[in-house]
Amino acid sequence: MATSAQLFEEPFDADEYIERLAWRTPGGGSKGGAEAFDPKKLLEEFANHIEELKQLDERIQRKVEKLEQQCHREAKEFAHKVQELQRSNQVAFQHFQELDDHISYVATKVCHLGDQLEGVNTPRQRAVEAQRLMTYFNEFLDGELRSDVFNNPDKIKEAADIIQKLHLIAQELPFDRFADVKAKIASKYHDLERQLIQEFTAAQRRGEIGRMREVAAVLLHFKGYAHCIDVYIKQCQEGAYMQNNVFEDTALLCQRVNKQVGEVFSSPEMVMAKLIQNIFENKLQAHVKEKLDTCFAELDLTMALAAKLTEFNLGSDKHTFLSKLIKSIFSSYLDSYMDMERQYLQSRSAVILQRYYDSKNHQKRPLGTGSIQELKERIRQRTNLPLGPSIDTHGETFLSQEVVVNLLQETRHAFQRCQKLSDPADLPRNAYSIFLLLVEHLCVDHIDYALEIGLSAIPSSDAKNANLYFLDVVQQANTIFHLFDKQFNDHLMPLISSSPKMTECLQKKKEVIEQMEVKLDTGIDRTLNCMIGQMKHILATEQKKTDFRPEDENNVMIQYTTACSKVCAYVRKQVESVRRSMDGKNVDTVLTELGVRFHRLIHEHLQQFSYSSMGGMLAICDVAEYRRCAKDFRVPLVLQLFDTLHALCNLLVVAPDNLKQVCSGEQLTNLDRNLLHAFVQLRADYRSARLARHFS
Predict the structure, then answer these.
(1) Which among 410, 414, 448, 446 is positioned nearest to 432, based on CA atoms?
(2) In sequence order, what DSSP letters do the residues of 129-153 get, joined into one string?
(3) 672 to each of 115, 638, 659, 687, how far by Cα in Å?
């Protein structure tokens, strides 16, 4: 069977296996072999071999079963062992959690103990610091500085820290009792501040970065820190502009200084921004203006000389000849003129605006752009809703005629230079470019920004005692529009009147003015809503139900109610404000709208009460006073509305027998009968059968 086992070697092939078994059997080979072929032996061998294979199969099957049983047994043992390990792991995890909770508990106790120690130590340190400052304060009080810290130049840093704290304390002391000591501390404060700035300046000249950083850190808490930065900016520019190219020198200077600023100052970005602002507002602006003015002046003189030279015989076309000579001289300057003009006008306008906002201590608010802002604008135009929080401008309009005059003057000079220095073919295009810059800085950056701030400052219609400043914005905006329009006609139109650019300029101007008018209309409408809201508040707080149903009908001595008096005073004030802020037909338009809303408010207000006979007379007196107030509007429609309202109030007091006659009067005959009925229903005696019968 061992031999047979060899026949099962891989790869196994049944045909080859039979062939090899037959070949190994004596007499089972081919006829050409050593022995003759004997089929019986071969059959016997096959039978025996089959029997052996059965036995082999049984043994293998028993071995397989034995191995399977062993595998099942070992699997059970392994599973049991895994369960034990899991239980052990769970116990270990529980122990770990307990240990972690214990560690957290101990850590909490330690932190709590640390907080307690800090709570004890901090007041102690403050007390020690306060005692130390009191000691130094007594020296100033006595007038004799005995401490070494104030007399030793090497301890200037420590002295600066002390005097800075004493200076803060001194500011809180009453002046009458501590005037002398406050003066001494302030004197020492300024003296140390001056010494520190001098030390910083000397260290900068010596190139001692470490010392500069130390002094700057001390000065950071002093008021003179800004002066220290100014000194640094001034000194770092000394000797920096030695070449003829101011732009290249500026780039090299900023590259050289940038690393040093980062090493010296705690906020290098602010220092670098201030340095660059200083360079632009002084060096670059002066350079650009000098170039423009020089080129303009020299060209003007050259053209004047050419005019004098025309009296000589220079050929048939002497004007063309002289023009070519002038262009040959100034061509290198004129080619880049417009770029320089735009750059100069851009920077100059930005400086004018920034100085104005700085003088107001105002940081410009970023105005939204893009689709969201456009959506807000559409909603505001259709609903007049105050989108966004209302801000308090404290009455500041953020419009300045001085700024406007300066911007227009700079633009006027630019137009003059443009006319002289531009090629005739390029003149309209260049003039249009200057006009766009004027629109950007005057109309967008100044006027439109002020309108946005003004709209944001308008309070809601239910605000109490609201201050309305938007009409002041309207007044100043109208004045600025007139100045803008005058320059457009006087200085721009002559340069573009015979070119296609004229249409573009007119269209741009129309778009700008229409955008401004939309915002002005929105602001005026919301302001009128606030006025009506304020009147409504006065009526709600001052008008009592007993005003029109007095307890003693025979003892009413007033001409009109307190609510009426206060409303009329408020209305007259607002009418005067509108007249002061508007001009032309705008006055009548706004006053008409205000008058109509005023009438609607009073009409609705009167329908909230019930009237006795004497109360009805008092209501007529109130409406008569409202009518006198309406005369100030000088708008026929408004006066007519209050005349009709006065006639309606007569229904409150007329005798029942005369109701039909009054209702058919001239002023009431065209009114809706339901409106007349509504007023009659306000009478306290309306439910009487006699009154109802007469009005039916």
Answers:
(1) 414
(2) HHHHHHHHHHHHHHT---SHHHH-G
(3) 80, 19, 15, 21
The answer to whether the CB of 421 falls within 8 A of the CB of 296 is yes
For the chain, how big is the Rg over CA atoms in Å? 50
Which residues, including other chains, have CB under 8 Å from residue 164's CB and lie 6 or more apart? 189, 221, 222
In degrees rounded to 5, what are phi and psi of residue 549? -140, 65
Q: Mean of the per-residue pLDDT values for the chain?
A: 81
Name the CA dihedral angle for 449, 450, 454, 456, rounded to a multiple of 10 degrees.
Answer: 20
Residue 630: alpha-carbon gap to chain centroid: 42
DSSP letter string over 224-291?
Answer: THHHHHHHHHHHHTTTT--SS-HHHHHHHHHHHHHHHHHHH-S-HHHHHHHHHHHIIIIIIHHHHHHH
The three-class DSSP label of residue 512 is helix
CA atoms lying within 13 Å on the CB side of residue 156: 21
Phi, psi of 573 (to 5 degrees): -65, -40
Report the alpha-carbon distance of residue 227 to residue 222 in Å, rounded: 10
Evaluate whether 647 touches 668 at the Cβ level (below 8 Å): yes
Residue 2 predicted with pLDDT over 50: no
Residues 6+ apart with CB under 8 A from 539: 563, 567, 601, 605
- From 246, 245, 191, 247, select the one nearest 222 (Cα to Cα): 191
State the amino acid at position 446 in one-letter form: H
Beta bridge mates, 683: 611
Q: What is the DSSP string of 635-685?
A: -HHHHHHHHHHHHHHGGGTS-GGGHHHHHTSTTTTTS-HHHHHHHHTTBTT
393-415: burial string, b at 16+ Cβ within 10 Å, e else = beebbbbbeebbebbbebbbbbb
Lowest mean pLDDT segment, chosen from 81-90, 220-229, 250-259, 286-295: 286-295
Q: Which amino acid is at 296?
A: F
* AA letter at 262: G
Q: Are 594 and 531 in contact (CB under 8 A)?
A: yes
Cβ atoms of 572 and 645 closer than 8 Å: no
Query: What sign does the CA torsion over 146, 147, 148, 150 have?
Result: negative
Cβ atoms of 356 and 400 closer than 8 Å: yes
Interatomic CA distance for residues 9 and 275, integer angstroms: 93
Residues pairing with 611 in the sheet = 683
Which range of 293-307, 355-369, 644-658 scores highest in mean pLDDT? It is 644-658
CB-CB contact of 682 with 547 (8 Å): no
3-state secondary structure of 7: coil
Instruction: Report whether 409 contacts 490 (CB < 8 A).
Output: no
Burial of 264 (0-12, 13-18, 19+ CB in 10 A): buried
Do residues 411 and 352 touch, judged by C-beta distance below 8 A?
no
Cα–Cα dist 34/28, whole Å: 11
Distance CA 649, CA 647 (A): 5
Q: Which of 198-212, 438-452, 655-669 has the lowest mean pLDDT?
A: 655-669
* Residue 529 main-chain phi, psi, to 5 deg: -60, -40
